Amino acid sequence: MTIQGEITVRISHEDAQILRIEMKEVIDYLSKCLAQYCSGSKPTTQFITAIEFMQSVKIGRTKFDELIAKNKIKTIKKKRKIYVLPSEVDRYFTDPSIN
């Protein structure tokens, strides 16, 4: 669809200032998202999958199952899928009780 012609809209100085501020917020947000995307980091999520956790800490399924059985990491199971809090990755490396 093409639009031909020109439309002129007149807005007050105050409305123009508000529009500039809101457009800057959108640009800042998009810049932040682009920076995350280009750096390869994922946006912050509430949970990661078991496989993402195992890849992050470089362990196999047997070790992962042992950690769950000994309540060393916090997990949530939904149907057949296991999810882990992203903070558990840091805790895996910093908590001396996890080995």
What attributes does this structure have?
4 helices, mainly alpha, three-stranded antiparallel beta sheet, 99 residues, 2 domains, elongated
Task: Characterise this structure.
This protein is mainly alpha-helical and 99 residues long. It folds into two domains: 11-41; 48-94. Helices cover 53% and strands 10% of the residues. The protein has four helices and three strands; from the N terminus they run H-E-H-H-E-E-H. The longest helix has 27 residues, at 13-39.
Number of beta-strand segments: 3
What general outline do the C-alpha atoms trace? elongated
With strands numbered from the N-terminus, the spatial order across the biggest sheet is 1-3-2
Question: Which spans have pLDDT < 50 for at least 5 consecutive residues?
Answer: none
Largest sheet: number of strands, sense, barrel closure:
3 strands, antiparallel
How would you sum up this structure in a few lines?
The protein has helices spanning 13-39, 50-57, 61-69, 87-94; strands at 48-49, 75-78, 81-84. It has 99 residues and is mainly alpha-helical. 4% of the residues are buried.
